[in-house]
Amino acid sequence: MNENEKRLVDLVADMEEEDALVLAQEMLDGGVDPLRVLALCREAMDIVGKRFENGEYFLPELILAGEVLDQIGAMAKPLILLSPDKPAKKLARVLIGTVHGDLHDIGKNIVTFMLDINGFEVKDIGIDVPVANFIEEIKALQPHVVCLSGFLTLA
């Protein structure tokens, strides 16, 4: 791992949002493989997860880390989609949403991003989605896979 790679991991893990975004963009502009940048972010998220388990971080830090990951993912996505290695056609239709009663979307957004860049046609119907809306979308889209996200135990 070179100096910039280690620095990106540290910046994301330490919640240095602005600096992390600037460095990620510089790395992408400098020709670093976007999948490498995302792998470094995954390493940082592992550190964030450990800090959460140890009581050093709490839910707000998890949310912020997820938002940073979303932003870096948005920077990397156009470059990934230009890759000659991406599938020529969509692999399957996926419907995803967060269940009624839950407003959290960190996990849903990460799964949506990963499916999208790996060749799946993904329709994200948002957060706090009632059962009736899922059923309506399933009938309309006829997805191969339905993903229901729920972060809260009460959702």
Alpha-carbon Rg, integer: 17 Å
Strand order across the largest sheet = 2-1-3
Binned strand content? 5-15%
Instruction: Give, in order, the helices and strands.
Output: HHHHEHEHE
- The geometry reads as flat
Individual helix count: 6
- Please name the fourth-level CATH homologous superfamily of the largest domain: Methionine synthase domain
Describe the sheet with the most strands. 3 strands, parallel
CATH architecture annotation of the largest domain: Orthogonal Bundle
List the helices and strands and how they pair.
Blueprint: H1 3-13, H2 17-29, H3 34-53, H4 59-81, E1 93-98, H5 106-117, E2 121-124, H6 131-141, E3 145-149
Parallel strand pairs: 1-2, 1-3
Helix pairs in contact: 1-2, 1-3, 2-4, 3-4, 4-5
Summarize the structure.
By secondary structure, the protein is mainly alpha-helical.
Structural features:
155 residues; flat; Rossmann fold; three-stranded parallel sheet; 3 strands; 6 helices; Methyltransferase, Methionine Synthase (B12-binding Domains), Chain A, domain 1; mainly alpha
Mind explaining what this structure looks like?
- This protein has 155 residues and is mostly helical.
- The chain folds into 2 domains: 83 residues, Methyltransferase, Methionine Synthase (B12-binding Domains), Chain A, domain 1, CATH 1.10.1240; 69 residues, Rossmann fold (3-Layer(aba) Sandwich), CATH 3.40.50.
- The protein has a 3-stranded parallel β-sheet, sandwiched between helices.
- Helix 1 packs across helix 3 and helix 2 packs parallel to helix 4.
